[in-house]
From TrEMBL:
This is CHAT domain-containing protein. Residues 1-20 are annotated as: Disordered.
């Protein structure tokens, strides 16, 4: 009996590559046509998705690198168009026209899901915005909008029924905060929009509605985890995207909105391919608190004008007014029909225009919101961390809240907000933060409150070195004299020397590098004779990259690091010891250099941090390598090599892509979410490739620091660390932290109160 073929439809590499045309058009009629082959475009799409998710933020504060990003984006569009026999002058003309109009429509043909996959995951929104940015600045056009059209798809007649807000039970169990989002949408629409909870999106096939808004835990199948490929905490119902799109199309909806990560790449275009006129989804990750403002403005304009493009631009403009507009990520609008006319379109509305189009009354005549309505008009999103660590607070990286924001979903004047945060452990007087905030008259505005919470750092309870404490956090918000929010919740306060080896705290490891610790000065004094002996220079000193005692900077740095190594190994005789016990998953208590020196012992990571502290004290730029269950130190042998590594885009682009066939389409393919997006943290697999190249070129020196207590030679330590990085798999690579960059970005050593040796 013949085996039945699987009904799953995924792009595969088995079929011959067929070219197709992607057409870029702006409202003035200027077009750009590229002939695309998926096998050729896919590596570029993969590379740019990953770079934009992981590395773009590194250079935002450096003008020369901003220019570099624009130039590379410009070249990416030129390379894409060159396959369609388009000249450079035509590309320049199109970019100039797009920079003037501020809108581009990208048309991708539809035949089967296997064809056009690379173009559908390509980050058109971000690359076109970058490529046109320089000219848009000259034209004083801040905003840029990209619309995606799926060409050649069937269209169904939409139903005249109302709207539905659907939530999967798995998303609810995972703790997705959709209540503020629903409140904003409900306030924006005059029609009724009930909530319906389902186990699987396909259950909605029997529902009839014109508008379907979905909050889900969407992912592809059993091969992937939650959104973005991370393992799901609650196992969701497995859903095939082709079947989901087909089932949802049966609702007769004219527009389906997916409020979930990674739905804009595959599920949204599949939905349009099955006959739905419009579909919205997120190209990558999105922060929950950014969603209500966008959709509040979007639906308000959509209901008034029935123009999806105007609504989309209004939502983006409202999002631009937020304190952190990048939290929305990239939201994609897919359509089965063209949304721009061949005439010059007006620029995307400004904040003033958005206010006028979304609020029925002007700011001058807006009435005050009655006290009885303040609670509904000002929903608060508040999610606390389970534990609180001093390093997060010390570096102004939050620590108390996952999300804490207030959204204004109704127009009208309101009194100032008073926010009171109190943390009490019973051991000291409560640490309290009190601040005031204001919201404008307009609706669809949001205030991020988490970034304004600054608890006093001087409290003994925040810098204690004992064990974890159970504290009580009290949060109260008043609007005038009306209390609109109150929560009392327990939170675990970790000892200040406890480092979280997870996504919330791993990047703050440089705060545990203490270059001014008294033990560092003692090691420098002990290492001085070793340096003079190694350099055969009676006046050799620890002068970092100045290299006053040797003509070669890299050789001088090697001698200095070798002198520290010899002092710790031969004179101070440091031994190895397991870390102190901790009672929180993926965390470790870290001893200071003084504690290590007094006890004459340390763990692998403590010895690495000790060496890094010594190097930083004398001006040598250190790094710390993190792998699964291990850590070791390294340093840059030349300052120029470090700068090139940090800012060089050419190497990143080359290594972020890979050669090979077209993988199966999955929500996490085409742009893996960065493990930690901080300028000093390099945690991607292509970063590992660049690290290996830097070592091979002799600009980066790794050292296996456990060879100090093992009484192994300095040379053996270098060879072992190099081999470990060569053999290391991406799955076991947690990242490399550049300590100097962390310092430049404000990550400083902790102010720890010394309480004696921790065994």
């Amino acid at each position: 009996m013949a085996k039945k073929k699987s009904s799953k439809s995924k792009p595969t590499a088995s079929r011959p590559a067929q070219p197709y045309q992607v057409v870029l058009r702006e409202p003035g009629g200027t077009t750009l046509t590229a002939t695309v082959v998926d096998r050729v475009l896919y590596p570029r799409a993969l590379a740019w998705n990953r770079l934009l998710a992981s590395d773009k933020g590194r250079q935002d504060n450096q003008q020369e690198e901003v220019v570099s990003w624009r130039a590379h984006a410009h070249k990416a569009i030129l390379d894409l168009a060159s396959s369609g026999l388009v000249t450079q002058s035509q590309v320049e003309k199109f970019i100039s026209a797009a920079a003037t109009s501020g809108i581009v429509e990208v048309t991708i043909p539809w035949e089967t899901e296997n064809k056009g996959w690379a173009a559908r995951i390509f980050p058109w929104e971000e690359l076109l915005a970058l490529a046109t940015k320089e000219e848009r600045i000259k034209n004083k056009i801040k905003h840029f909008t990209v619309v995606r059209v799926l060409g050649g798809v069937p269209r169904k007649t939409p139903t005249n029924h109302g709207a539905l807000f659907a939530v999967t039970n798995a998303a609810d169990a995972l703790g997705f905060d959709y209540h503020t989002e629903y409140a904003a949408i409900k306030a924006a629409l005059s029609l009724q929009i009930p909530i319906k909870k389902v186990d699987a999106l396909s259950e909605l096939s029997t529902t009839r509605c014109r508008l379907l808004h979905l909050v889900s835990d969407y992912h592809e199948d059993e091969e992937s985890g939650g959104s973005g490929g991370e393992p799901a905490k609650v196992e969701p119902v497995q859903q095939n995207p082709m079947r989901v799109a087909e089932a949802l199309a049966q609702t007769g909806a004219e527009m389906i909105v997916y409020s979930a990560c990674y739905t804009g790449r595959r599920l949204a275009p599949l939905t349009v391919a099955h006959g739905v006129k419009y579909a919205l989804g997120f190209h990558g990750m999105v922060v929950d608190t950014a969603i209500p403002v966008f959709f509040g403005a979007f639906y308000k304009v959509w209901e008034k004008s029935q123009n999806v493009l105007d609504a989309f631009r209004a939502g983006l403009a409202a999002n631009d007014l937020l304190q952190r507009p990048d939290d929305l990520g990239v939201i994609t609008l897919w359509s089965s029909v063209s949304l721009i006319a061949t005439t010059t379109a007006p620029p995307r509305p400004t904040s003033r225009q958005v206010s006028a189009s979304t609020i029925p009354t002007s700011t001058a005549t807006a009435k005050s919101i009655p006290k009885a309505d303040l609670l509904k008009a000002l929903p608060v999103t508040c999610a606390l961390e389970e534990t609180f660590n001093y390093s997060l607070l010390h570096n102004s990286r939050g620590g108390l809240f996952k999300t804490f924001a207030i959204t204004k979903i109704r127009a009208g004047e309101i009194p100032p907000l008073e926010v009171i945060i109190s943390l009490d452990t019973g051991m000291d007087r409560p640490a309290e933060c009190r601040f005031y905030a204001t919201l404008p008259v307009e609706a669809d505005r949001q205030q991020d409150l988490a970034s304004q919470v600054m608890l006093p750092l001087g409290g003994q309870m925040l810098r204690q070195r004992g064990e974890s404490l159970l504290g009580t956090l009290q949060i109260t918000i008043f609007c005038g004299t009306t209390r609109i929010f109150h929560r009392l919740q327990s939170i675990i306060l970790l000892p200040c020397d406890e480092w979280r080896d997870d996504e919330t705290g791993r990047h703050l490891l440089p705060s545990f590098v203490f270059p001014r610790d008294p033990a560092v000065r003692e090691v420098i004094t002990t290492a001085q004779p070793f340096l003079r002996a190694l350099s055969d220079h009676p006046h050799a000193g620890f002068d970092g990259y100045q290299s006053s005692f040797h003509p070669s900077t890299s050789r001088a740095v090697v001698m200095q690091t070798r002198a520290f190594w010899s002092a710790m190994q031969l004179a101070l005789r440091l031994d190895y010891v397991n870390p102190p016990p901790t009672y929180i998953r993926r965390s470790q208590r870290l001893r200071t250099p003084e504690e290590i020196l007094r006890a004459r012992r340390g763990t692998c990571i403590e010895l690495a941090l000790f060496l890094a502290a010594c190097w930083e004290h004398v001006g040598i730029h250190s790094v710390v390598f993190l792998t699964k269950n291990h850590a070791f130190a390294g340093c840059w042998l030349e300052e120029q090599a470090r700068r090139k590594f940090l800012t060089g885009l050419d190497g990143l682009i080359a290594h972020a892509s890979f050669a090979g066939g077209l993988p199966a389409a999955k929500t996490d393919i085409g742009g893996v979410q960065s493990k930690i997006k901080e300028p000093w943290m390099f945690a991607e697999d292509y970063h590992l490739t660049l690290i290996r190249e830097a070592i091979e070129q002799g600009s980066l020196l790794p050292l296996e620091t456990t060879f100090i207590p093992k009484q192994r030679s300095y040379t053996d330590a270098v060879i072992d660390a190099e081999n470990a990085l060569i053999e290391l798999t991406p799955e076991n690579f947690d990242g490399m932290l550049d300590v100097q960059t962390a310092r430049e970005k404000g990550v400083t050593p902790l102010a720890i109160i010394y309480q004696g040796i921790v065994a």
